[in-house]
Amino acid sequence: MKIKGVSVITTKEFIKEKFGMDGYEKWENSLSEETAKLIKGNILASVWYPLKNGMVEPTKVMCDLFYDGEYAGAEKIGIYSADKSLHGVYRFFVRIASPNTLLKRATQIFKSFYDPSEIELVKISKDNYIMKFSEFDPPSPYTDYRILGWVRKALEICGAKNINVAIRKHAEIKSDFSELVITWD
């Protein structure tokens, strides 16, 4: 599976901003040889990179180093990513979008960042959805938490209140699915 370079760039920017150059160097030096080679290379925003080396391992290493192995770091990168993208390229859309519309569009946005991927949004009620995503190879809670953070921040930017985004299920294999439960007022 592949991920767009902009997500790799976002990870690098987040770590530099949050932990400074010393933290960044510590993180970069903790990556596997293959992943470090990718990270140190010239990352282009629109080019596809392997999910494992471009996002899963870099996020896991960051969580291990700076978040005591907790997934909170992955969620924070998701929040950071939504904040950057939805105040950047997509800012005009977000200003006029309802949370419901944003979630529907998010499934399309995610497909343009993760290839291949299957993302399904199931409406339970007006402000209650389930988002299922599969075909992520390798499946990883780090990916799930990044998506969770992105969704939470995107809904906040759209004006939703009392947002709750929770992971109900993590995919174990590529053909399985991860599932988020999303509610707000």
Structure characteristics:
three-stranded antiparallel β-sheet, 7 helices, four-stranded antiparallel β-sheet, H-NOX domain, 55% helix, 185 residues, alpha+beta, 2 domains, globular
Radius of gyration: 16 Å
As for the CATH topology of the largest domain, it is H-NOX domain
**Largest sheet strand order:** 4-5-7-6
Q: What is the CATH architecture assignment of the largest domain?
A: Alpha-Beta Complex
Major sheet summary line? 4 strands, antiparallel
> How would you classify the helix and strand content by structural class?
alpha+beta
> Total domains, how many?
2
Approximate shape:
globular
What proportion of the residues is helical, as a percent range? 40-55%
CATH class of the largest domain: Alpha Beta
Unreliably modeled segments: none
Distance between the termini: 35 Å
Q: Helix count? A: 7
Give the helices and strands as they follow along the chain: EHHEHHHHEEEHEE
CATH superfamily of the largest domain: H-NOX domain
